[in-house]
Description:
Largest sheet of chain B: 6 strands, mixed
Order of helices and strands of chain B: HEEEHEEHEHHHEHEHEEHHH
Radius of gyration of chain A: 20 Å
CATH architecture of the domain at 13-93 and 170-282 in chain B: 3-Layer(aba) Sandwich
Number of strands of chain B: 10
Shape of chain A: elongated
Largest sheet of chain A: none
Structural class of chain B: alpha/beta
Oligomer: heterodimer
Number of helices of chain A: 9
Distance between the termini of chain B: 88 Å
Amino acid sequence: MIGASLGRIGAVVLFLLRVLGQCLPALAKPRAVIHQIYNAGARSLIIIMLCGLFVGMVLGLQGFDLLQRFGSEDALGVAAALGFLKELGPVVTALLFAGRAGTALTSEIGLMRATDQLTAMEMMAVDPLRHVIAPRFLGGVIAMPLLVAIFDIVGLFGAQLIGVQLMAVDPGAFWSQMQAAVELDDVYEGIVKSICFGFACSLIAVYEGYHAPPTAQGVGLATTRTVVVSSVLVLLIDYMLTAAFLGR
Amino acid sequence: MLRLVISGALMSAPPVRIRDLHYAVGTRPIFAGVDIDVPQGQITAVMGPSGTGKTTLLRLLTGQVAADRGRIELFGESVGDLNKVGLYALRRRTGMLFQNGALLTDLTVFENVAFPVRAHARLPESVLRRLVLTKLEAVGLRGAAELMPSQLSGGMARRVALARAIVMDPELLIYDEPFVGLDPISMGVIVRLIRELNETLGVTSIVVSHDVEELATIAHRSYLLSEGRVVASGTPDELARSEEPVVRQFMSGAADGPVPFHFPAGDLAADILGRSQQVRGRS
């Protein structure tokens, strides 16, 4: 069990090294990478914005209820901003990314394997790692921070909608306290997390797709594994990064 | 002088030479000592009943899997000794038509054919367009250039795949079951294209198939595989006249013979009665 897990981790690391080796040549043809940023990013926008809005609204409600007990509901803006920038934005976006873009990547690559498209490329002396995997991997890594930024902005709008418009928190206090309390380090933490999550989710998605058994069941199982492994990995990395940023 | 002698020797060597090939999947042997020569500029057919490893032979030949023992030479180079760069260099001299076409589903017909050219050469768009349309014209599908693979019939998809296979002007063309699932018209078109490509471009061709009649009309030489070995080889006429039981069974399409109709199983009566007794016991 432990041996198999270690072997699997080793295989993923080796695969990562091979993909990284093809990233620079893949960037030489930016059109493919931009296309994949569109696929992973733009096509995830609706779900990201919708979920960001609802998470922000819930945070507005819960935050207001909690802060009101201490008579400090004016701090709702700070709570929402820090919550989104440092945790909710990167983590929830990564989980949604794994479910939307990650599964799409895995099933697409898995089906390409099952229908001999990847083998056909190899037979044309075209490396699928360079032409299929690296652009998709880079597209995911680049799209994730952009999606997190959009999730944060829409989420803060949702928190403001509930806190300021519905619960009558003073808008000046909401925004000015947020401006005063949020530091560049908080933004930096969110950016680092989003890049790490983008890296992890994209790697798992392309790895599972590339190694999916060429059967309907094989592709289905690989897609499921992408969601499960990515989700667990995101939460694990989140804990490690949070502990590192807090210096604990 | 020495270089001339060596290059002369390489030129005269057959493009494909397989010697004492052994390969097994797990404990099940697929090949146990196969020898095949594919002469320059000829169409060589590899035939055999389903499950004899014809497609596996192509995978071994193109270096997709490694042989357990024996030597496979492609253009004079041992496939098993090559690294990825060497293999890719050999594959650039080879075109392969897959059983299902294996077209890239998110690209148009034009882009599918242009794909290997874009990957390997920097051609002006006008030259590339002319090249691709010429190849599509050769397979009769210039008018389908802007269609997506999902809009093509099986026969059309295979012709597009053939255009893609020849777009880099390969020296060797490999066809994996090119006639499977085609209607008589599409099959006739593919047969004609294989023959024309061989005659006009002088391409050496390997056709893996079990369609005896079609192969008889185009192959210069045929190999018949069965139970991991080459059981017969020769011109289609020689195979047709062969008295070997396994050759006769294959060429005439007899259901039973040296290649049994039934998959190996235990005693029929014991199997059926045993099961009915079990059912009776349960009730």
